[in-house]
Structures are given as structure tokens and as C-alpha cells.
């Protein structure tokens, strides 16, 4: 997937292969979705090439507060706070976080992290405070 973004993280959603032709190697056609932006990308590469696979983590944190500048304060497993994440950019998820917090619900936010990037990707309502 050709791009100038060095930390591109993709979820492959489709792979197809072509047979070896008159120009050498069989080819693989990849269709993938960027896990942070949702952008669809395609690429064709020789089937004999290797590709790097990033390690993606998903961690749940309890939401403590939302600052006026759009950062969230999260409670980590060891009792410390994590204050370096912005509210999600996805409109539906953003509305769920803001509305649930305003209603006083206990919310757990799922954070996906890979290659130095982190993003809120999900929400769970664990009941009223």
C-alpha cells in the first residue's frame, strides 16, 4: 500500500492472487482499511515478497473526565491516570462518549495502540455512577 505516512496500519479485508504470467511472479492484490482513519487502500505485490505485520494492542480504561480542550482522563489498571488521548474523531463514538459522560454513566473506553499511535475505538457502558 503505497503512501507517505510511515505508520500506516491496515486491516486486510480481501486478498486475491493472479497466476504467474509472462512477466514473472504471481501477484497478490490486497484490499485493506486503515485502522485509524478508515480509509480504503489497495496494492498489488509479487507473491514472493514478505510484508511486515505490526503488533496491535487493545486496552480498556475507565473514563474519569473530559477536559475543555478535548482530552480525556482515563484510569489505568494500576490506578494512575492517562491524560494524553483526545476524544475520538468518529462522530457516532464522540457523541456516545460525550452523552454518556454528561448523563453520569460509568464508561470504559477501548484504546487501540500500534506503532506509537493510540486512538479511542470503542465504548462500554458499565452502569450509572
UniProtKB/TrEMBL annotation:
UniProt KW keywords: Hypusine, Initiation factor, Protein biosynthesis
Record-linked NCBIfam families: eIF_5A (TIGR00037)
An annotated Gene Ontology molecular function: translation initiation factor activity
Keyword ATP-binding: no
Protein's job: Translation factor that promotes translation elongation and termination, particularly upon ribosome stalling at specific amino acid sequence contexts. Binds between the exit (E) and peptidyl (P) site of the ribosome and promotes rescue of stalled ribosome: specifically required for efficient translation of polyproline-containing peptides as well as other motifs that stall the ribosome. Acts as ribosome quality control (RQC) cofactor by joining the RQC complex to facilitate peptidyl transfer during CAT tailing step. Translation factor that promotes translation elongation and termination, particularly upon ribosome stalling at specific amino acid sequence contexts. Binds between the exit (E) and peptidyl (P) site of the ribosome and promotes rescue of stalled ribosome: specifically required for efficient translation of polyproline-containing peptides as well as other motifs that stall the ribosome. Acts as a ribosome quality control (RQC) cofactor by joining the RQC complex to facilitate peptidyl transfer during CAT tailing step.
Family: Belongs to the eIF-5A family.
An individual GO BP term: positive regulation of translational termination
Residue intervals of the Translation initiation factor 5A C-terminal domain: 55-124
InterPro entries for the chain: IF5A-like, IF5A-like_N, IF5A_C, NA-bd_OB-fold, Rib_uL2_dom2, Trans_elong_IF5A_hypusine_site, Translation_prot_SH3-like_sf
Post-translational modification, as annotated: eIF-5A seems to be the only eukaryotic protein to have a hypusine residue which is a post-translational modification of a lysine by the addition of a butylamino group.
Record carries keyword Nucleus: no
Protein name: Eukaryotic translation initiation factor 5A
Amino acid at each position: 500500500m503505497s503512501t507517505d505516512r510511515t505508520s500506516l496500519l491496515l486491516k486486510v479485508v480481501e486478498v486475491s492472487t493472479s497466476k504467474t504470467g509472462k512477466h514473472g511472479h504471481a501477484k497478490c492484490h490486497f484490499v485493506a482499511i486503515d485502522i485509524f482513519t478508515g480509509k480504503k487502500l489497495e496494492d498489488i505485490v509479487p507473491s514472493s515478497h514478505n510484508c511486515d505485520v505490526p503488533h496491535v494492542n487493545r486496552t480498556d480504561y475507565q473514563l474519569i473526565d473530559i477536559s475543555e480542550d478535548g482530552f480525556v482522563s482515563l484510569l489505568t489498571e494500576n490506578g494512575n491516570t492517562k491524560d494524553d488521548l483526545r476524544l475520538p474523531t468518529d462522530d457516532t463514538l464522540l457523541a456516545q462518549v460525550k452523552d454518556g459522560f454528561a448523563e453520569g454513566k460509568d464508561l470504559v473506553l477501548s484504546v487501540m495502540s500500534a506503532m506509537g499511535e493510540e486512538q479511542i475505538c470503542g465504548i462500554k457502558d458499565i452502569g450509572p455512577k
